[in-house]
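Structure first, sequence second, as always.
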């Protein structure tokens, strides 16, 4: 059996108490999760497995938790399907770090410490410069970008899929941009329950603090094609990695472009590994004809039909 697949990794917001428990019961999954736990403290696994939800939702806990569970799911997947050809990997925001680990560019222990610091820096930046986000539905991405360009403190944070663009900025800026998007024909503008204006210049202090840590990492040449969020295209050199990850905190995530790059290279089968099914839903809106599967637990991974 051989199948050329694209593997997708989720971002923040998919965490839930109990995540990773089933993976921890396997030898491979446990090995990954224990490395992650040792890297930043045993409270990571305790919070993942037992909660409380409020503690797991904190960005400096949710980001390493989602990263660790997604890496564990990847390792179980590779063990289960060693013959499957993975054509490319991509991750949404935080998930880009998982994709780099899956591609061999970032070591697990270093990655979990890095994403914990990233989460902490983002949360502190949000406290220093409060903001919010909203999802604009059924309005052309170009029109949303045009509206944000003329409204102070309003930015495009995510180009997720056709008909879904996320905007980010000050409460006043997002309120004005939301009104303008509705006036321009958006079906709905949904305020998001987030703690800050992520993927916008409001995260400038987080970027400044993250950059030195990114430069210190011992990045390696990926052995699988890894897509970068801010360009929508693959990394072309190891030297690009810290620069593009630093930009990712303050710039738009071009998720639809990442997916379309893979589709244009003939990848017609995708697997979302890790908690949630957010990326499965986005891919179905980008290209309804493709097969997209989601799996987190060993049972779900083992049941994947890749024949």
């Amino acid at each position: 059996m051989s199948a050329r697949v694209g593997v997708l990794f989720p971002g923040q917001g998919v965490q839930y108490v109990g995540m990773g428990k089933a993976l921890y019961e396997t030898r491979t999954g446990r090995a990954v999760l224990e490395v992650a736990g040792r890297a930043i403290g045993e409270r990571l696994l305790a919070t993942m497995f037992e909660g409380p939800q409020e503690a797991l939702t904190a960005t400096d806990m949710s980001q390493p938790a989602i990263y660790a569970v997604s890496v564990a799911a990847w390792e179980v997947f590779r063990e289960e399907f060693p013959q499957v050809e993975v054509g490319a990997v991509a991750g949404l925001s935080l998930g880009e770090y998982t994709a780099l680990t899956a591609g061999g560019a970032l070591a697990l222990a270093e990655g979990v410490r890095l994403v914990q610091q990233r989460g902490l820096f983002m949360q502190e930046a949000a406290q220093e410069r409060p903001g919010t986000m909203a999802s604009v539905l059924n309005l052309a991405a170009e029109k949303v970008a045009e509206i944000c360009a003329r409204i102070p403190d309003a930015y495009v944070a995510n180009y997720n899929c056709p008909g879904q663009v996320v905007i980010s900025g000050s409460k006043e800026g997002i309120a004005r941009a939301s009104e303008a998007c509705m006036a321009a024909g958006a079906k709905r503008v949904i305020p998001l329950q987030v703690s800050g204006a992520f993927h916008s210049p409001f995260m400038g202090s987080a970027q400044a603090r993250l950059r030195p840590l990114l430069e210190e990492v011992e990045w390696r040449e990926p052995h699988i094609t890894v897509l970068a969020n801010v360009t929508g295209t693959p990394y072309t050199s190891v030297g690009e990695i810290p620069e593009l990850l630093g930009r990712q905190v303050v710039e738009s995530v071009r998720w639809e472009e990442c997916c379309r790059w893979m589709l244009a290279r003939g990848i017609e089968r995708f697997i979302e590994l890790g908690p949630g099914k957010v990326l499965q839903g986005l891919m179905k809106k980008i290209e309804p004809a493709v097969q997209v599967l989601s799996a987190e637990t060993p049972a779900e991974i083992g049941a994947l039909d890749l024949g």
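Margin note: Residues 59-80 form the longest helix (22 residues).
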